[in-house]
Amino acid sequence: MTTPPPPGHNPHNQPLNGGNPYGRPGAPAPARRMSLKGIVRGVVGVALAAVVAFGVYETWFAGAAMADAGDCLNAANSTATSVVAVGDPEFEIVDCGDPAAEFKVISRESGTGGTCDTQYRRYSQGGAGRDFTLCLDLVK
């Protein structure tokens, strides 16, 4: 059994107390100042992350992704043709009595290969395990 070295003795010549080899407390490190450039980068980074997160939410968890049979939709950025792709239009669920209601969801099927009767418009969205097809009827 070995005996530990006496206090203040450093047999392996390793730094003690934050790098001071003599065992004395060192001066505190100077405080780091944030530059304006660093603050702007941080704010821009957070804003960019928020925009991306909102876009993902809107694409997969709002609008058409949450619509079910009986819901009415507004095509926020265009009007739908017979087959519509993701993002064209960007659907928003609205009250069916709202003048902005353009389409009524007739049916919802899982998967992007769903079919609709010829009098309805078909909208499919896929990816991230949330594949679905909506059959839409014009409200107006």
Structure description:
The protein has 140 residues and is of the alpha+beta class. It contains 1 helix and 6 strands, in the order H-E-E-E-E-E-E. The protein has one helix at residues 36-61, and strands spanning 72-75, 83-84, 91-94, 103-110, 121-125, 132-138. The chain is elongated. The model has no long low-confidence stretch (mean pLDDT 74).
Keywords:
elongated; alpha+beta; 6 strands; 140 residues
Total strands = 6
Average pLDDT, all residues = 74
Residue share in helices? 10-25%
Using only CA atoms, what is the Rg?
A: 31 Å
Lateral strand order in the biggest sheet:
2-5-6-4-1-3
Work out the strand percent. 15-25%
Report the uncertain regions.
none
Discrete helix count: 1
Q: What structural class do helix, strand and pairing data support? A: alpha+beta
Q: What is the overall shape?
A: elongated
What pattern of helices and strands is seen along the backbone? HEEEEEE
Q: Quote the distance from N terminus to C terminus.
A: 92 Å
Q: Can you summarize the main beta sheet?
A: 6 strands, mixed
